[in-house]
Amino acid sequence: MRHWLIANTRAGGGARGADFWRPRLARAGIAAPEVRDIADEKWEAELAPGDTVLVAGGDGSVNRVAGVCLARDAILGVLPSGTANDFARNLALPEDPDALCALMARGPTARLDVGWLDDRLFLNVVHVGLGTLPATQASPRLKRWLGRFSYAAVLPQLRHLGLLRGFHARLEADDEPLEERWLSLAIASGAFFGGGSRVPGASPRDGRLTLVAVRPRPWWRLLLTFVITRLRGHTPEDDDSVLVRQPTTCHIAMSHGHRVTADGESLGHHREMTLRVEPAALRVIAGVG
């Protein structure tokens, strides 16, 4: 069984590429990993069941490598090197790079759920509406300079983009239908999005998705709901601006095509999509937590 180091030289400005991680991994006992750039697809065919793949990149890189690990029955290790690193937050990883590499060398494993949007894997969150702004409006330069705060930097554009009106969609969460206007739909497999924001009630180990649907409301009310949710860790019980459900499957049908993002990557415009969870599908190296 081999160790692989797959690096995205463009993630997070390129400061934590293979040259950053290789000496630290060597000191931890992983002296000669097979090193590949993520743009090189040849390594995928060489990956054997039981191999450990350490990916140095952001959520987009982790998403791609996770799909290969699922297909080849390999173990995924994450060396957070991107802007948001939301999937890594599910794994209780040490922040210190040397401690992280020591954990990768020990290799304690856990199994996490993954989500599927039709035939597309996602590990964090699928967004429609307001939640697509960070991926579609924040430039790479803005992300590099502001880090996780780039996700808040685009929010003042709401009025100019006309998103406060929302859009019409029919939701079926575990066959329970609900049809009205929505400002934002978020369907989560993991527990984090947007550089550390927690999805209310979500866990990557409960065998369920978490649907968070936001209704169009005055901006001040939505802001108050957001602040209370961040402080308490759950939405206010007497506030109908946010609907939270935890289905295993979810079907969304919209009257018009709308932009969809998954794990921060744009998937173009969709009118209909089906989402499901695959419980305990992905083997990962994880800390205690």
From TrEMBL:
GO molecular function: ATP binding; kinase activity
Pfam families reported for this sequence: DAGK_cat (PF00781), YegS_C (PF19279)
UniProt keyword annotation of ATP-binding present: yes
Annotated keywords: ATP-binding, Kinase, Nucleotide-binding, Transferase
Domain DAGKc: residue ranges: 44-121
PROSITE patterns from the UniProt entry: DAGK
Stated name of the protein: Lipid kinase, YegS/Rv2252/BmrU family
